[in-house]
Amino acid sequence: MDLLNELESLVPELERGIGQAFSLAELEELRVTFLGRKGRLAQIMTRLPSLSPEERPAVGQKANAIKNSLTEIFDARKAALEAEKEAAQLARFDASLPGRAPWGGSLHPTTLVQEEICGIFQKLGYDIAVGPEVENDYYNFEALNMPPEHPARDMQDTLYITEKVLMRTHTSPMQVRTMLARKPPLAVVVPGKVYRRDSDLTHTPMFHQVEGLMVGENVSFAHLRGTLTAFLRGVFGAKTQVRFRPSFFPFTEPSAEVDISCCMCGGKGHHSNGEPCRVCKTTGWVEILGCGMIDPAVFEAVGYDPKTISGFAFGLGMERIAMLKYGIGDLRMFFENDVRFLSQFV
Amino acid sequence: MLLSLKWLREFVPFEGSAQELGDRLTMLGLELEELAHPYEAISSIVVGHIITCEQHPDSDHMHVCTVDAGQGELLTIVCGAPNVAQGQKVPVALVGTTMPGGLQIKKAKLRGVPSFGMICSERELGLTEDHSGIMVLPAESPVGARLVDVLDLDTEVLEIGITPNRADCLSVLGLARETALAFNLPLSLPSLPLVECGADIAGSVPLTIADPELCWLYSGRIIENVHVQPSPMRVRHRLHAVGVRPISNIVDVTNYILMELGQPLHSFDLAKLAGGITVAPAVEGEKFITLDEQERVLHASDLTIRDQRGAVALAGVMGGLATSMTAESTTVFLESALFKPAIIRKTSRRLGLSSESSYRFERGVDQLGCLRSLDRAAALMAAWSGGSVRKGVCKVEPKPFVAPVIPFRPARANALLGVELTEEFSQQTFAALGCPVQAEGDTWQVTAPSWRYDLSREADLIEEVGRVHGLDTIAPVLPQLQRSLDDAALPESPFSFWMRVKRWGKGLGLNEAVNYSFVGHKDLDHLHLPQEGRISIMNPLSAEQDALRTALAPGLLQNLRTNIAQGAAGLRLFELAHVFTADASSDTTAKETSIIGFLLYGSRYDSAWPQQEADVDYTDLKGIVEHLLAFLHIGGMQCQLASEPHPYLLPCVNVLVGGQPVGVMGRVRPDMADAFHARKDVWLAELNLDMLCTLHRAASVHFSALPVFPPVRRDITVIAPATLSVQAVLDYVTALKLPLLEKINLIDLFEPEQAEERNITFRLIFRHAERTLKDAEVDKVREKIAAALVKDLPVHL
Fold first, then answer.
1. Chain B interface, mutation test: which of A156, A157, A248, A310, most B Cβ atoms within 10 Å?
2. Disulfide-capable partner of B616 in B161, B170, B611, B620 (CB 3.0 to 4.6 Å)?
């Protein structure tokens, strides 16, 4: 039974060979040698016809069993080698490599603040409108109850194009344009650029405002307080205290300035380390916007009847909000467009 | 408005602190801006008594004094003042004191004699300019007392922001009225008896008012035998505390009354007035020298006070030099008048001459207080100058004050404020404000006082009751908005469209810049932008900001310079903004166009790892523009090399959609980019965002069914002259309209420098909608394309 012996000897031979195979390539070579089409097993099997018919079934069975054993040995070794390889690869994987950075974009802080503010008012049901930046004296001043030689014009130093055309000093002319174009009830916010003839540490000749107005029947100062309180809590947090101080704007009556509790020192006037708060100058309050009930003279200018219609309006500066929200100390940085500044606002 | 607490207490018995007062006034609409302590720097100066005063052994001008400053022991102080003498009461700065000028008082040895402090002059104390000798205090001054108390200085000054409607609060009296209202205190005017003598002056200075609309009241008094000299010390210190420079007793009286009662006054030297006084507009072109020694050319719109010779004062703004009081003057004609606010403002603005007087006249001065102020001023002037007030007043009042009677509906007030005020509260408030009320029925009649120019309509009265009630105590209510069924279908607002584009730009990795809308004409000139159609600023802050931008390039290039200066290797900016051109058909004479601008410069990547170092080029810029149009669903973008030279781009590529130009992109001309310190190519695009918005609104998204059968790809490389555009080859192949060819893409470009030819490699993508393609049929089409290219285009394979 030479063939049977030969077949049986294949297993220990392979086991010996596999002990020397340390790579998948070497293992593959062994597989071809033993199990390939012209391998050792196949060669033994070519001699099967030379056996007598009685001997053949036993040898055939043996051959199958040997083939299975060989295959098992191979597979086990192969799996072990693959696992080793994977482990080696894993050991080399450097998770600490810096990522391939995509381009990092950013939005200007005034854009972020405008978006947030307009978003809050949209949630409250307001429309968003925009208007021209070059404006007529009529819309910017006269229709807003500031006839020529009105001392309130001093409150806003104006850049003029001609005697009657100017760079809008506030977004309030859009109150007039909106009311002329639409009928009450209406609720609109107007974001945009505004211009003043003023340039120093705390003023830039261009800045951004958001104007808001609500007009209808029975709109009251209580509504104004409710709206602005909700809005300011939305922007500065639910714990924000809001204070309304009487003030003066020619196009609202009564008028008020709104202060919020200082978000730098928590309204205490001093930081926890005892340092005086510079933002609120230790008062605990920060002036944030101007507002009031729309003056009857404005309603008359747009052909609304002040006896039946009332409304409120407010306006606030975006740079100021951005400075408070993000802790930006220097107003001039807003328009230098240094990417080290810009890229912080993603 | 600077308000001395001590001065205020002469009008109203307010016992609280300055902070308390300021806080309450703030909530009444009179904002406390700052609490100042003008004499804080000398608060530690004490009264000393010079017990002995001996000549310094080693100096002929210094004295060695022994001073009792209430310190328990006598101090030796060396003093160099010529007027120092034994027995004087003097201000003493003790060791450790910091003087207003910053000088630290230390123990010192002066020519060998130790000195423990300093005896001060008025100038050293910051009180006056007097440095002729030490300040000598009244003999009864208590030793060791604080100087600020002995001199009764105004140590607490509130700076109150007065809004333009509250001219009545531009005086101690006005703020005293509000204080009385706020704390429910009685108000009283300081009394000073006026002693008149001599013959009545009625008619001695004839008064004429040309236009009663311009001058409502003109009055005057004569004070004789005055001696022009410094005012009493206390007056000078008080004026100094509220920011007024003491000048002479005559001028100081007018300033004192201005601050105290809010009435601007003017003193003429009566001897220099020729004939009577006329209030009339100036003669056009008339020259006039004001008190500040400036020659002014007057217009017929300026109101003047005139004598027989011409203008003697710019009414309500400033007096004239020729008739002003001098040291030699002895007789004053003291004017107290009232002018139309608008005309004062016009003159003051035209001449750029804003005085304390014009500031108050512009905003409105109390007509009924005019004569009271005149009398008090005359009495003070007599008292401070040793003069005497002549009997009588010269006065014309062509337009006497008529108190406005204003209807007030309590129900309307409650509705507008959203609060329930009782009728009793409103009545009390009006009474406290000095407004007589007829409270009958639904509509009351409220009479406004003469000092409240801001009360003329019901809304003004509602503001008053609201303000006194406290705007901060009205309960907040969030209103319900009524919306219509159509509101949800309204088109997207331009703001929301801009926001989406901005978010796209940020998402793409660009940094949003915001630049001023104005630039200098020279910035526009530098980029060769046309002069025509530019809009200039009439009163620019500087030449750098005298024109509205007609392109975004000037601002973006400025940002490039800023960022290169701070060391940026690359830059990717975008900006959305209006540009401005003159347009006669616009109601504002300006056409505002929304532009989106891009600027790319330098390194393509922010970090060297793990990409290869490369600079941005045209394909980066074009890719961004293409991506934007795709984002907006705008198809059919074409690029054409501009045939006309562009002001600042070379090459300049016109971007067209459906044949319509929507913008440009290209490289900033290197000579122009140099000025912004660019060392590499600067790529810039500007697109009309209004047009893109219109195209975007018209565009829609349509789903295409997915192909079922796989594509087959074949590449083809042609060698083409460097001047042949890739697009020409693409267009040619597309135009062949081969049924199996789905797409042709550029995949490689090999362009040796200086070579006249370049290799262009395309990928052809074939697909059949209903079956899988065979290699042979695809190869056949590829061969057909190759043959056609070689035949019709100047290319070879």
1. A248
2. B620
